Amino acid sequence: QEIRKVVQTLEQTAREILTLLQGVHQGAGFQDIPKKCQKAREHFGTVRTQLASLKTKFTDDQYYRFHEHWRFVLQRLVFLAAFVVYLETETLVTREAVAEILGIEADRERGFHLDIEDYLSGVLTLASELARLAVNSVTAGDYSRPLRISTFINELDSGFRLLNLKNDSLRKRYDGLKYDVKKIEEVVYDLSIRGLNKEATGGVGGEK
């Protein structure tokens, strides 16, 4: 019961961060990216407090016994942290860095930690979000962003191909990545047909 209560507060904070970051998809949202990321990071301070409270509700050796309770919200928080880091630096956040943002451990031996499959699930959600961002960038007249997103997603896809995914839900999520890659390729192809990618690489369409 106590675990469930804390998880509910985590879900609420995750919703607030998501609502905030969704603003980047709106036309004017691109100018506000640094401000939105800063605000999101403040919310992650609340997340750290809530996760610290969650840790006190059970002993370390019971982590996987109750894992199902917070698995989904943790994956969502990984996605949100990965999205913030991507918007700030256009790089992929490491599992260690996410664990640090969330105020938990990266190593299983150290107690309440970020499970590798939860990390990978969150990263796959990021891919879908970036596919959407690529489409909305064009609408906002930012033609260089989809090209950079395309490079990033292709590198991500190459990384996932190296993994032997045994987990069924993760495998299904990975299948979705192929559609994200395809969606972004279509955006880039459309830009090249319209001659807009030349503008993008010339640094005219939208700043990084």
From TrEMBL:
GO terms for molecular function: endonuclease activity; hydrolase activity; metal ion binding; RNA binding; sequence-specific DNA binding; single-stranded DNA binding. CDD domains: Translin (cd14819). Pfam families: Translin. One of its GO terms (cellular component) is nucleus. InterPro entries: Translin, Translin_C, Translin_fam, Translin_N, Translin_sf. Keywords: Cytoplasm, DNA-binding, Endonuclease, Hydrolase, Magnesium, Metal-binding, Nuclease, Nucleus, RNA-binding. One of its GO terms (biological process) is RNA metabolic process. It is found in: Cytoplasm; Nucleus. Mg(2+) binds at residue 129. Belongs to the translin family. Ring-shaped heterooctamer of six TSN and two TSNAX subunits, DNA/RNA binding occurs inside the ring. DNA-binding protein that specifically recognizes consensus sequences at the breakpoint junctions in chromosomal translocations, mostly involving immunoglobulin (Ig)/T-cell receptor gene segments. Seems to recognize single-stranded DNA ends generated by staggered breaks occurring at recombination hot spots. Exhibits both single-stranded and double-stranded endoribonuclease activity. May act as an activator of RNA-induced silencing complex (RISC) by facilitating endonucleolytic cleavage of the siRNA passenger strand. This is Translin. The lineage of its organism: Eukaryota, Metazoa, Chordata, Craniata, Vertebrata.
